[in-house]
Amino acid sequence: MTSNTSGSGLDVGIDAVGVRFASPAGPMETLDAFSLEVPAGSFTVVIGPNGCGKSTLLRLVAGLLDPTVGAVRIGGTAPRAGDGRVGIAFQQPRLVPWRSVLDNVALPLELTGAAADERARRATEALERVGLGGVAHLRPRELSGGMAQRAGLARALVTEPPVLLLDEPFSALDALTRETFDAELQRLWLDRPRTVILVTHSVSEAVALADRVVVMTPRPGRVARVVAVDLPRPRPADLTGNARAAEIAAEVRSALASGRAIELRPWLQAEVLA
Amino acid sequence: MRPLRFLATLVLVLPLLVACECGPFASCPGTPPDLRPVTLLLGFRPDVQFAPFYVAQREGHYAAAGLEVTIEHKSAPDVQRLVASGEAEFGVADATDVMIARTEDFPITYVSTLYQAFPVALIGPAGSVPDDPSGLAGMTIGTPGRFGSSWHALLALLEAGGLTEDDVTIREYPQFNQVDGLANGDVDLITGFRNNEPLRLEARGIEVELLTVDEIAPLPGPGVIVGDELLVGDPDLVRAFVEATAAAQAEIIADPDIGFAAAEAAVPAISEDPDVARAVLDATIELWRGEEFGAGRIPEDLWRAAYDTMLRLGFIDGSVPVEDMIAPDMSQAAGANIRDRWIARVRRSG
Amino acid sequence: MRRVAASLASFGAFLLAWKVVTVVGGLPVYILPAPEVVAERALRAIGSGVLWEHTAVTLLEIVLGFTVGAILAVLTGIALGKSLLVERVLSPYIVAAQAVPILALAPLLDIWFGGGLLARVAICALIVFFPIAIATMVGIRAADPLLDEMLRSLGAGPAQRTRLLEVPSALPVIFGGLRVGVTLAVIGAVVAEWAGAGSGLGILINIANQGLFDTPLMFVALAALAIIGLAFHGLVVVAERRLVSQ
Fold first, then answer.
1. Spatial CA neighbour of B298 closest among B95, B103, B150
2. Which of these, C74, C59, C111, lies nearest to C232 by C-alpha position?
3. Are C27 and B83 in contact (CB under 8 A)?
4. In what order do the strands lie in the sheet with A26-38?
5. Residues B339 and B225 in one domain
6. Distance CA C194, CA A142 (A)
7. A41 contact C CB<8A
8. What is the pLDDT of residues C17-68, one digit of tens each?
9. Which residues of C touch A82 (CB under 8 A)?
10. CB within 8 Å of chain C, chain A residues 66-85
11. How many angstroms separate the CA of residue C139 from the nearest CA in chain B?
């Protein structure tokens, strides 16, 4: 298992990657000529319209998928699921219902063969770090949505991976909880830096969290624009009233819109023109 | 009614009346209205051995006796049960089973003997069958199961030889395929029916010998049973059935072709192997008449002796006396007189 | 406590209904014996040791047959559930074996397995196999794909995913199959005995019915089989409560 010796994560390189699936409707390209360099320890947010391939991108980095063309590197070598370099938190908590919360969080350690007391110690610590110290022996069905999602995050962090991937982790929660969790996430990352790639729909979330926002085109996904976010940290999750934030947000939105322009249907285009 | 409608009704109704032979306008030559419908339960499935019943139906013996007999096939315990409850009037059962059932308070009575000779014997390859049952010690014997006339006969033979079940090894063949066991050499001897297994073994090229009970531990053979309610309520009906059946049997003994023809018509399976069926019928006829044909007569001394054997072997507890089990007066006066009278009567009404 | 009382009450009602049927229908003892006649016969059969002698044989057949059949069925069900190819190759034979009436197959199996306890265990195992295998297959297939992906992301291989996800998630359905299977095991043991055995409750039924013409004893054997079925089913339910915790 790779330990986070550099203290601030590994760099992630995506080199001219294309992903093509066979589908009943014919071959489908989800990513095309996608290239991105993610510096070690940075917080990168990927944003794009539905179906643009952002989830596919995460799965490439997680080692769950191989690109059809191109290559992915983590710290110079190809990703491999379970080698401990990547932790991933999904849109759903994805907790195993018949295990306690503690055993769920300890699952990655169990798969690498760690001893029971080490597992318990590290899982307890991970739960405390996300603010779930008291629920270790509950079952997932006894948790609220927000608590379950945090438990999933704890699981992703329990192996202290140098790279953390988050696939729309808070989109299923209400806006208030979401802001709180965004702030928490930032705190956790500042506390123990690592490379973070977070996928989202939300422009405000992207601006609040990211060092850089990668805007994707619709399918097949490419990089439309990379927008740097030079706001000072720590940032509040709610940046309304911050003029610079508003500027950056506008830039991100226009990048999204122009990326989408190709996709506009004739009637909508007529409306815009009119 | 208006003329047209009346005419229409007449046109519709009249042909129906004419066509119905059994209506008030015509007598019915085919179906005499005073035949008593009765049910006869035979074992398991149609077989050439039931020829007397097929002949009695076909040649009109039952009709002449005022009976319309419907044959159904049931398993042995069901035959006794249904006759006991009155669901069926007549059945065919093994004498030793009747003793046990009667002791268990099944209200049935054995009224007529079908087989004067006991059908079950011990069968084995020629040269290996002991003449004396004491020679059975240490042998392996195949039998369908620890019940039924085969089992009773086996234990009676062993007892006669001073042996018990523990002196031999029993191998059970619940599928009634003990013949295969003998052919494979898995067993030394098998119990079987004298008119069946030896023929099948000889067809496989195996010469056989038999050890029969008749001289050693005599037991009565299968016969007709009726429910006590019917026996008491309508003894004439019972007697008529018994005598008609005996007459049919006599006809077959005199001319086996009649029996075979009736059986062929009633038993579809015969057409697959008519030669074997004919051989079985010929062997069966020998069992019906034993030393001489008895027209259903029940040998009371034999029954008493067999009752004591069954009592000693523990199959019955003696709570019901043998006299309650049989009705010898249903098949009186054996022999040619009855037989000839019935044949003449059948031919007259024919 | 209320559950026990309710069960006792319903059993009492059943006995009463039985008695009423025999009285009102005027049914003689050799057609349908009344409950007290069966009970008296049962006491005699227990006292003479006859009932235990045959029950022990059948119990052994059921325990061995069910265990062997269930283990094979769960393993096969996992294979069927995980691999479409395996399902396509194996399922025609499994379905065909299920469709042929066991009553017809049992004598053949008795010969192939050389008679004796092995043959009866084999027949019993065959009869419990199908429902348990199919339940396992369905349960395995129903495993949450989201959880499957999560485990893959942690580097879990197929065997680990079977152990950690598919089997535990399939347990409720598998137990459904086991409940059906255990009651079929009782039938299987009786069918197996009818194909070729010297003793057992199925044989006792035959002996009572065809040999002794002792209908109350036949009912005693039937009641014993029913009680055995209930007991084993109850054991499976208890096991389910302990092992399945979702």
1. B95
2. C59
3. no
4. A26-38, A12-23, A69-74
5. yes
6. 53
7. no
8. 999 999 998 888 888 999 999 999 999 999 999 999 999 999 999 999 999 9
9. 153-156
10. 80-83
11. 40
Give residue C6's pLDDT.
Answer: 92
- Give me the number of domains chain C comprises: 1
Find the closest chain A residue to C245 by CA distance.
A98
Helix (H), strand (E), coil (C) string for B226-288? EEHHHHHHCHHHHHHHHHHHHHHHHHHHHCHHHHHHHHHHHCHHHHHCHHHHHHHHHHHHHHH
Is the four-CA dihedral A92, A97, A100, A105 of positive or negative sign?
negative
Q: What is the pLDDT of residue B19?
A: 52
Q: Name the residue in chain C with its Cα closest to that of A96.
A: C147
Interface test with C, best of A61, A91, A92, A94 (most C CBs within 10 A): A94
The count of domains in chain A is: 1
Residue C36 one-letter amino acid: E
Residues 6+ apart with CB under 8 A from C142: C169, C170, C173
What is the full per-residue pLDDT of chain A (274 aa) written as tens digits?
Answer: 344 444 578 889 988 888 888 888 888 888 888 999 999 999 999 999 888 888 899 999 999 999 999 999 998 899 999 888 999 999 999 999 999 999 999 999 999 988 999 999 999 999 999 999 899 999 999 999 999 999 999 999 999 999 999 999 988 888 888 888 999 999 999 999 999 999 998 999 999 999 999 999 988 888 989 999 999 888 887 888 889 999 999 999 999 888 765 554 444 444 444 4
Range of the domain at C112: 35-243
User: C194 in contact with B at a CB cutoff of 8 Å?
Assistant: yes
Print the domain residue range for A271: 1-75+197-274
- Boundary of a domain, candidates B167, B186, B212: B212
Q: Are residues B134 and B151 in the same domain?
A: yes
Q: Hey, is the C-beta of C219 within 8 angstroms of any chain B C-beta?
A: no
Domain count, chain B: 2
- Structure token pair of residue A110: 């169990």
The token duo for A176 is 């208030």
Q: Amino acid identity of A214?
A: V
- Angstrom distances, CA of residue B294 to CA of B331, B333, B337, C16: 9, 9, 12, 51
Residue B18 lies in a domain: no
Question: What is the value of pTM for the model shown?
Answer: 0.80
Q: What is the pLDDT of residues B103-113, one digit of tens each?
A: 999 999 999 99
